[in-house]
Amino acid sequence: MNIAQWLARVAAVSPRRPAVFLGRERACDYAGLHGRAARLAGWLSAQGVAPGDRVAIFMTNVPDYLTALFGIWYAGGAAVPINAKLHGREAAWIIGDAGAAVTLASPEQAAALRAAAATGRLVETDGADWAVAMDHAPSDGPAARAPGDLAWLFYTSGTTGTPKGVMITHRMLQGMTLSYLSDVDTVTAGDATLYAAPMSHGAGLYSLPHVLMGARHVCPPSGGFDPAEILDLARRHERLHMFAAPTMVNRLTAHARDAGETGAGLRTIVYGGGPMYLADIEAAVDRFGPVFVQIFGQGECPMCITALSRHDVADRTHPRWRERLGSVGRAQSLVEVAIGDEAGRVLPPGETGEIMVRGDPVMPGYWQNPQATRKALRDGWLMTGDVGRIDADGYVTLHDRSKDVIISGGTNVYPREVEEALLSHPSVAEVSVVGRPDAEWGEVVVAFVVPASGSKLDEAALDAHCLDRIARFKRPKAYVALGALPKNNYGKVLKTELRKILEGANG
Q1: Which residues fall within 8 angstroms of residue 400, CB to CB, at 6 or more apart?
Q2: What is the per-residue DSSP string for 325-351?
């Protein structure tokens, strides 16, 4: 089934239901969204886009993002959403690798693609082609697609090398949507979802359960993440849902604390995409109440590996509540999750190893990359590359990416454990821990620290703080003060850049 059938059905039953907003202003109802998507599909088909062809989206978070996404699906195409913050050359590489025949782009992004000499036809959303498309005869309805057909070609962030295209099928998106409604949150027609994170990634994926249930979709006028704007829109729309990276949650919490806000109108914040430290989520719950749900997923199993319920995030009564809060929750309904050794053999509860997942939401492979596919998929399991353990109750605790584990003196040191300890010191605003090659120990622990406002790096104080909380061999052997941690466009810390800093210092 074509995933776009959900939009067609809602538009048929509730055509006048409000669908898309730009801030406080309504952009269209469900009949309008359906009509625009159908006309775009008709135009794409007239340009020769056939079922299975790739069409790229290089757009900011604007109301017509949903028009583009569903219009591609209506035509039977596969969407290739690209983060609008990427450089034109990076986006052009993705367009070329995907073999996208057409790219739909916002004006600024279109200019960047022209400068990068991107391949394929470029359609600017305020240009003549787009205007013609919005006047074109609509398609008869969503093109027939099989469950295993490609729907979304998702390119990984490329923090460790060239991005890989994850093939996301219609079946995977259906599974993700049903898992959201079963394991993450309920959605009704009275709810609204806010796109403050890039729609090319998790926030855009989560448009699907909200379309299925006929909810409202809100694009912030800023086009991105602005804490004051988010809190204002929450009050205006009420019952507001949003997806946020941990760094966004921290900024929202800090702004609300300084402004005396409590988050009126916020119903659900789903967080994921990076490590959320205990002190940060405790502060967020204290400020906003039980509105948080954590998910753990990857592009290869989009948003769909584990979930930590709002009850578990907010609960303080369970004897092991802090341990559970430090986990990423339990397996979502449509997947199996296990811990494996280096050979992929399943380990018993409590053992540490690589997190593995299998089920309908798992990708069939990487786009035109059989070697990477063979490495990632083993005997039906997706090898996530993340190290963790599962307790007897099924809660998964994520330690680190396998490539980030530090082996010092033959013993594994998990950077996140050291980072958690350092972040509980009041002089530390941000921290990231990596390993530095060492002739005696193999690797030693190095902490890159962003001091809190008004504080300076005090190595002796941080050493004493660590020794009170973690084993002596885990404490950093060196500290490096930074004004800010290097991050990619999704807010993830670039440990590869930190390692380059160490190489430069040693060179």
Answers
A1: 386, 387, 414, 415, 416
A2: HTS--EE-TTEEEEEE-TT-PBPPTT-
- The set of residues, in sequence order, having a beta carbon less than 8 Å from that of 370 and lying 6+ positions away, is none
What is the topology classification, in CATH, of domain 405-506? GMP Synthetase; Chain A, domain 3 (3.30.300)
Residues 207/10, Cβ–Cβ less than 8 Å: no
**Structure-block tokens of residue 78:** 């596969």
Residue from 137, 131, 125, 119 nearest 41 by CA = 137
Q: Strand, helix or coil at 424?
A: coil
What is the model's pLDDT at position 413? 83
Inter-CA distances, 52 with 76, 174, 176, 278, Å: 6, 18, 21, 44
The enclosing H or E element of 359 equals: strand 353-359
Cβ-Cβ contacts under 8 Å for 131 (sequence gap 6 or more): none
CA distance 315 to 325: 9
Q: Which two tokens stand for residue 360?
A: 């309908």
The structure tokens 């074109």 sit at 136
CB-based contacts of 464: which residues, under 8 Å, 6+ apart? none
- On the CB side of 274, how many CA atoms lie within 13 Å of its CA? 20
Cα–Cα distance measured from residue 162 to residue 94, given in angstroms and rounded to the nearest whole number: 10
- Non-local (6+) Cβ contacts of 95 within 8 A are 56, 58, 80, 82, 103, 113, 118, 119, 120
Amino acid (1-letter code) at residue 256: A
Task: Tell the burial category of 286 from Cβ atoms under 10 Å away from its Cβ (0-12, 13-18, 19+).
Answer: exposed
Place of tokens 């466009």: 489
Q: Is 254 helix (H, G, I), strand (E, B) or coil?
A: helix
**Tell me, what's the pLDDT at 492?**
80
Tell me 487's DSSP state.
Answer: B
Specify whether the CB–CB gap between 191 and 215 falls below 8 A.
yes
Q: Name residue 168's beta-bridge partners.
A: 152
Angle at 156 between CA 374 and CA 499, to 5 degrees: 95
**Residues of the chain scoring pLDDT < 70:** 157-161, 410, 489-490, 505-507
Which helix (H) or strand (E) covers residue 449, if one does? Answer: strand 442-451
Query: What are the tokens at 39?
Result: 């006309």
How wide is the angle at C-alpha 145 spanned by C-alphas 142 and 149, nearest 5°? 135
Residues facing residue 339 across a β-bridge: 355
Give Cβ neighbours of residue 286 (< 8 Å, ≥ 6 apart). Answer: none
Residue ranges per structural domain of the chain? 405-506
HSE value, Cβ hemisphere, 13 Å, CA-based, for 366: 18
Sorted by sequence, the CB contacts under 8 Å of residue 281 that are 6+ apart come out as 249, 271, 292, 294, 313, 325
Is there a contact between 101 and 54 (Cβ–Cβ < 8 Å)? yes
pTM of the model as a whole: 0.85
